[in-house]
Amino acid sequence: MIGLQPEGDVDWSMYRGIMVVVEQRSGVAKPVSWQLLGEARRLADKLDAPLMALVMGQDVSHIAQQAIGYGADIVYHADAPELKDYRTRPYSRVCLKVIKTYRPEIVLMGATYTGRDLAGAIATHLPTGLTADSTQLDVDDERLLLASRPAFSEKMLATILCKQFKPQMATVRAGVFQALPYDEKRTGKIIAVHQDMHENDIVTKVLEFVQDDNRVNLEDAQVIVAGGRGLGGPDGFKLLHELANVLGGTVAASRAATDLGWIDHAYQVGQTGTTVRPKLYFAIGISGAVQHVVGMQNSDYIVAINKDPNAPIFQIANYGIVGDLFEIVPLLTKAFQERLTPVMAR
Amino acid sequence: MHIVVCIKQVPDSREIRIDPKTNTLIRQGVPAIVNYYDLHGLEEALRIKDEFGARVTVITMGPPSAEKALCQCVSMGADEGVLVSDRAFAGADTLATSYVLALTIQKAEDTWGPVDMIFCGKQTLDGDTGQVGPGIACRLDMDQLTYVELFESLDIEKQEVVVRRHLEDGVERVRARLPVLITALDILNRPRRASLPGVLRAARYKPIVWTTNDFSNLDRSKIGLKGSPTIVSKTWVPEPKQVNTEYVDSANVVAAATDLLNRLYATELPQKLGWS
Ligand SMILES: Cc1cc2nc3c(=O)[nH]c(=O)nc-3n(C[C@H](O)[C@H](O)[C@@H](O)COP(=O)(O)OP(=O)(O)OC[C@H]3O[C@@H](n4cnc5c(N)ncnc54)[C@H](O)[C@@H]3O)c2cc1C
Ligand SMILES: Cc1cc2nc3c(=O)[nH]c(=O)nc-3n(C[C@H](O)[C@H](O)[C@H](O)COP(=O)(O)OP(=O)(O)OC[C@H]3O[C@@H](n4cnc5c(N)ncnc54)[C@H](O)[C@@H]3O)c2cc1C
């Protein structure tokens, strides 16, 4: 196995179209898959090529159908008990079969734990180049995929190409691209793919999956309410939780707050924490140190609340309120609650 | 038991700064460290060694200066450190790297006996792809358990391991059979400090060095820059976002809250977030 070679014909012009590998758990697709289809639709139209999706799992025909509604022209659908839980071997085997048979020129997956696990195995097997963790995608006149990814703790961006082999592969971060509105009436082709591994030949067994609803998941959050040293203590986070709850968002923190033990390290945003790109980010009692800013500057909208008018956070904020967070945040929560609650109760 | 731990010496990227004038990286004075996650892989290997007895071989592909990183691992308790080093390996992407590391592991098997387990880090601080571990497993036709947060058990008789894999939405308990490749998260364990005998041994220790000439079956078209399908075509420092901050008058805080809310409602946020 060690030095793998592309098999058979190496007429790369036979490779056409974009394939998105859809990730799901227990029959529910991960949002990143639909986000990827949205962006891949744009690229496929630019290439004048079909957009394919690959759906694997057990009892997932509804996901194959959804993939069409989210933009796919052709869906390859592998349904088998052996594919109930993700495991590298059976999943990569199906993927390889589909890629070798239908020859997409580009293959995209979410840069999730599962996506990275699978993509790393497949790219080695084919073999081909794989760009990790992309945040920008494009194609050029020579049909090359331009996949750009952050480098050096988000300080730079690098555009990576693969000219030598096909398909060109990339994993893509969740939350970067937008899914197309779901179109029930869209039509497409669903092609069944046979899974040919026997359970006895799959050594790895998933014993159980324990869902963790309290898992801090800043990467996928659409609204983040972040607090810093200005909160004055762990109690300050209660105010943020209230605002976050009303907005269906997630609380986060600066390193000052996590270092002081006011909130768990898992909530830290920034260079040594998580990089986030929500639609809306509140920086409350956060000064805006560069190490914090690199982790959140790509949020669509930033609101800063700080009593210091010279705090650097205001330089990158779309909206600023100079004032005392303890006064403003509860009023803001109340204002949103009044406006949003009747709708949510419907 | 023979366990191989893959480590990479990396610049501590947390310390890298950008020169604001030239928009290039300032690498000077940036310390070289053993990739943070790899030490957690080493620690788990050493724990298995402590409990069951094992030979722990640490391998790295890198420049001669990476010897220091191997010595650090020896000071913690690794038995042997192998540096795979040659100018021809330079510029490798993950595909070329996993090729050389797989060959190295094969040679380590020929030298010290069959490998039962391989530990890698979740990802590196510099390349940050997390692709090398799966690449090695694929090349050696081994099962892989990535993103492991807890090493639950090892049954030598049955040749089985049970681990907990960390996922975005929960934790998965998985059983696999040896040989297996595991990639380590930082929550897996707390790496030990070097022991005094370890420090003494490391002070005199010379890592084994293998170059291209030491691999009889090496395909030169698969290594280094030439063997790397990915090409970095350009790098740039993103322009800081240009924003015209709209300040909300906070003289009257109640009015300020409503004012901010109205401004947010005037954007596309309500549509994107489903507010109405
Ligand atoms: C800014 C930048 C972006 C890059 N982007 C890509 C990309 O998108 N795709 C791509 O294929 N390559 C990419 N590369 C090249 C790639 O990062 C490395 O050069 C490659 O040698 C190792 O990959 P990694 O650092 O990502 O390792 P990872 O895959 O993140 O490493 C995982 C584990 O593998 C082991 N390991 C990794 N390297 C070694 C080694 N040399 N010796 C021993 N063990 C090791 C360690 O246990 C490590 O924890 C990029 C490099 C840079 C600098
Ligand atoms: C290598 C390295 C890595 C780092 N990584 C990170 C990282 O990942 N993430 C990170 O966040 N930091 C990181 N830091 C730390 C960073 O440099 C800052 O120290 C940290 O972000 C400051 O947190 P803060 O803004 O909460 O605190 P401060 O800078 O102390 O700011 C508190 C702010 O609250 C305001 N305030 C106080 N009271 C009120 C009030 N009642 N109402 C309104 N405003 C009020 C103040 O005006 C002030 O602006 C790192 C540092 C280093 C050296």
TrEMBL record, chain A:
Cofactor binding: number and manner: Binds 1 FAD per dimer.
UniProt xrefs under SMART domains: ETF (SM00893)
GO terms, biological process: fatty acid beta-oxidation using acyl-CoA dehydrogenase
Binding positions (FAD): 229, 254-255, 268-272, 285-292, 306
Segments forming domain Electron transfer flavoprotein alpha/beta-subunit N-terminal: 18-206
One GO MF term: electron transfer activity
Cofactors required: FAD
Swiss-Prot/TrEMBL keywords: FAD, Flavoprotein
Domain of life of the source: Bacteria
Family annotation (CDD domains): ETF_alpha
InterPro entries with a match to the protein in the record: DHS-like_NAD/FAD-binding_dom (IPR029035), ETF_a/b_N (IPR014730), ETF_a/FixB (IPR001308), ETF_alpha_N (IPR033947), ETF_asu_C (IPR014731), Rossmann-like_a/b/a_fold (IPR014729)
Record family assignment: Belongs to the ETF alpha-subunit/FixB family.
PANTHER family with a match to the protein in the record: ELECTRON TRANSFER FLAVOPROTEIN ALPHA, ELECTRON TRANSFER FLAVOPROTEIN SUBUNIT ALPHA, MITOCHONDRIAL
Name of this chain's protein: Electron transfer flavoprotein subunit alpha
Automatic annotation (TrEMBL), chain B:
Obligatory cofactor(s): AMP
Location of the Electron transfer flavoprotein alpha/beta-subunit N-terminal domain: 22-219
Signal peptide location: none
One Gene Ontology MF term: electron transfer activity
A Pfam family matched in the record: ETF
SMART domains: ETF
InterPro entries cross-referenced by the UniProt entry: ET-Flavoprotein_bsu_CS (IPR000049), ETF_a/b_N (IPR014730), ETF_b (IPR012255), ETF_beta_N (IPR033948), Rossmann-like_a/b/a_fold (IPR014729)
Entry similarity comment: Belongs to the ETF beta-subunit/FixA family.
PANTHER family referenced in this protein's UniProt entry, alphabetically: ELECTRON TRANSFER FLAVOPROTEIN BETA-SUBUNIT (PTHR21294), PROTEIN FIXA (PTHR21294:SF17)
Name of the protein described by the UniProt record: Electron transfer flavoprotein small subunit
Organism of derivation: Alicyclobacillus ferrooxydans
